[in-house]
Amino acid sequence: MIRNIIGLFVLAVFVSCGGDDGPPPAPQGAALVFPEENSECTTGTEVNQTSTQVTFRWMASSNTERYTLNVVNLNTNVPQNLSTVSTSASLTLAKGTPYSWSVTSQNASSDQVATSETWLFYNAGSQTTYAPFPAQLVHPLSGSTVIKDVANEVLLEWTGADVDNDIESFEVFLSTTNPPTTSVGLANATDMELSVSVESGTVYYWKVVTTDLEGNTSDSGVFDFKVL
Question: Which residues span the domain enclosing 165?
Answer without folding.
Answer: 136-227
